[in-house]
Design brief:
The protein is α+β, with helices and mostly antiparallel strands and 172 residues long. It has two domains: 3-66, DNA Primase, Chain A, CATH 3.90.580.10; 87-152, no CATH class. The chain is 21% helix and 30% strand.
C-alpha cells in the first residue's frame, strides 16, 4: 500500500499504469475500487480485470494460483463419524396438545393437521422426543416441533393429489 485512510488502503492499479495511486481496497468489506477507471468489485471481479476472463471458474483458478499459501502441516482427512440415527420410531395419530397448539400458532387448523400429518415419537442421542411428521413420497417424514426442524429419512418430495389439475409448489 502507498497509503491508508479510515476505510482502507491505497495502491497503484495492478492492471494499468498510473502516476498517482487511485486503487482503493476496503479490507473490512473485501471490496476494491479503481478511481482512475471507475471499475470495482470483489476479488473475482479483480481477477477478471487482471486476466480478461469472464468465466468464473477461470477467475477462481487464477486466484488459487496467485494465493500460494504455505502449508504448515500436510492435509489429513478427518475421519467420518456417523451421527446417531433415529431409534425406536413410532408413528401415531397426531393428538399431542403441544404439537397441535404449535401448528395452530402457525395457522394450521387441527382438522387439516390431522388429515395430513402424524405424530412421530423417536429416540435420538439417547433421549425421547416427539414431533409433527409430514410424510413424503418415499415414506420418510419432515419433522417439526417448537424446538426442532429436521427429517426422518429418506428425503423426498410430497405430492398431494386432490383431483385439482393445478400444481402448487410449497417449501417448508
Amino acid at each position: 500500500p502507498t497509503g491508508r485512510d479510515s476505510k482502507g488502503l491505497w495502491f497503484y492499479s495492478p492492471y494499468r499504469n498510473e502516476r498517482k495511486p487511485s486503487f482503493h481496497v476496503n479490507p473490512r468489506k473485501n471490496l476494491w475500487f479503481d478511481f482512475g477507471s471507475g471499475a470495482g468489485g470483489d476479488i473475482f471481479t479483480l481477477a477478471g480485470e487482471l486476466t480478461g476472463e469472464t468465466d468464473f471458474i477461470r477467475r477462481a483458478e487464477f486466484i488459487a494460483q496467485k494465493m500460494q499459501l504455505p502449508v504448515e502441516k500436510p492435509y489429513k482427512p478427518v475421519p467420518f463419524v456417523e451421527e446417531p440415527t433415529f431409534e425406536n420410531v413410532e408413528i401415531s395419530r397426531l393428538e399431542s396438545p403441544i404439537l397441535l397448539n404449535y401448528l395452530a400458532d402457525r395457522g394450521i387448523p387441527r382438522d387439516i393437521a390431522q388429515r395430513y400429518c402424524v405424530q412421530v415419537d423417536y429416540t435420538l442421542h439417547g433421549k425421547r422426543y416427539y414431533a409433527v411428521g409430514f410424510e413424503n413420497n418415499a415414506h420418510g417424514y419432515e419433522l417439526r416441533n417448537p424446538f426442532f426442524k429436521g427429517a426422518y429419512p429418506p428425503k423426498n418430495i410430497t405430492h398431494i393429489a386432490n383431483g385439482n389439475p393445478r400444481c402448487n409448489v410449497f417449501e417448508g
